Design the sequence.
């Protein structure tokens, strides 16, 4: 991964070159609509406070748990003792981006949602709350982390989530057999080039012409930047939106010309 200094430099470059969607006009009706109705929606939706209360509990939880670490190729490389609050402080998507995912679900109403990397289920809960009738499948390899996520879903009365515990390599084939098509995916586990591109290919094979794929931490490392660039160049990809901390990919949307946007958020 890049050092904090390298990341800060990259972020500043992103910040000062990104468009705010106003300027010369955004030449994509899809992106214009996304900026107006999703990105810039500043409402404080009812679920935000309830989910943030659970995040806050996790950030103060001093319980030590056993966490399996997944290496390249998804083999478990080591098992560590970790404190819940340390994971909560470092691994979860921030409220700003988790709430953006909530609004994406609320606005586009994807029916089948897949999340790779549940952690404690905070972002999963945002995804599930965006549309009660969506079916959310979320995957987590570490057993004790997954069991905390399951407790959080119960505490927040989340009924439309199926949590699948196990290594992505082993659980994904069965998930794809049952889901058939994926309308929205959030890829937030195993931040390496080859696994990310493999997940992309698997998701592509189950996409429709309105599927949206969201990749986490696209600028986190050279490998993730290389994966992001390969995804952007793939012929099936029509529109990409770079928000620095996540990258959004549209598979078709009836859009003929490939367009890449860097938007300030
Ligand atoms: C960054 S965290 C997910 C955070 C979560 N999406 C959120 O925003 O709250 C990534 C999770 O993916 C899990 N993970 C990484 N590689 C995996 C693999 N190959 N199979 C299963 N789980 C994996 C890790 O155990 C970790 O809990």
Sequence:
């Amino acid at each position: 991964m890049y050092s904090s200094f390298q990341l800060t430099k990259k972020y500043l470059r992103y910040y000062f070159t990104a468009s705010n969607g106003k300027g010369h006009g955004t030449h994509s009706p899809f992106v214009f609509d996304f900026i107006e109705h999703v990105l810039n929606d500043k409402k404080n939706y009812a679920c935000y406070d309830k989910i943030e209360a659970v995040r806050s509990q996790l950030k103060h939880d001093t319980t030590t748990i056993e966490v399996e670490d997944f290496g390249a190729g998804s083999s478990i490389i080591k098992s560590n003792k970790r404190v819940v609050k340390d994971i909560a402080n470092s691994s979860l998507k921030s409220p700003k981006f988790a709430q953006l995912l909530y609004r994406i679900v609320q606005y586009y109403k994807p029916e089948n949602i897949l999340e790779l990397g549940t952690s404690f289920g905070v972002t999963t809960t945002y995804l599930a709350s965006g549309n009660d009738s969506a079916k959310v499948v979320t995957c987590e390899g570490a057993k004790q982390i997954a069991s905390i996520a399951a407790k959080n879903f119960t505490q927040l009365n989340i009924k439309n989530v199926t949590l699948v515990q196990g290594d992505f390599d082993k659980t994904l084939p069965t998930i794809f057999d049952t889901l058939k098509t994926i309308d929205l995916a959030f890829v937030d586990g195993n931040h390496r080039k080859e696994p990310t591109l493999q997940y992309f290919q698997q998701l592509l094979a189950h996409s429709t012409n309105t599927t949206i794929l969201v990749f986490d931490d696209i600028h986190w490392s050279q490998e993730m930047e290389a994966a992001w660039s390969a995804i952007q160049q793939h012929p099936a990809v029509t529109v990409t939106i770079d928000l620095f901390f996540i990258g959004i990919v549209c598979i078709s949307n009836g859009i003929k010309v490939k367009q890449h946007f860097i938007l300030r958020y």
The first helix runs from residue 4 to 17. The pocket of S-adenosylmethionine is lined by residues 70, 74, 91-93, 117, 119, 122-123, 139-142, 145, 167-168, 188-190 (CB under 6 Å). The chain has ten helices and ten strands. The chain has a mean pLDDT of 93.
